[in-house]
Give the backbone structure.
Amino acid sequence: MNRQTRLDRRQFIAGSAATAAIVITGGALLCRGEAWGLEVHNLKPGTMHTLIKAARDIYPHDRLEDKYYAIAVRSYDEKAGTDPAMRTLIEDGVAQLDALATATHSQAYAEVAWEEDRAALLAQAAPGTFFQTLRSGLVVSLYNQREVWRVFGYEGESAAKGGYLHRGFDDLTWL
């Protein structure tokens, strides 16, 4: 969609019950089913949409909503505003993913329906700098979110609570 595309409230709500799809409108991404939005400042909104999809494919967790992946890739948009080389790396990397997807599936990466097919595309891009930069940044930006910790049942660091030794480490009753 181009920057002139408008999505009114009625269209947004009408589609929200049917799908959790991410909609690109203007300079933002909106997720119908999960009720969140992400304003994009430095990268193309389509690039951010692809980054969210790729982040989910690199670190797949069915229990995590797309909003956590959107928060994780937001840092790439911020870095693109201060580092032209990062902006070029991300935009070119997404263009490469789209080219790979178009060659094999006749559609952009984010539109490829099957996760397995997208994973195969990522495997082709894995040796490159774009993929390595994305993967290494995501491991921090995704898993350092306190809300994600709650989903996985992680309580956070243990030193301030006396460590793990006397807080459940030795409570195995079946052994």
About this structure: The longest strand covers residues 22-25. Residues 100 and 121 are 7 Å apart (CA to CA).
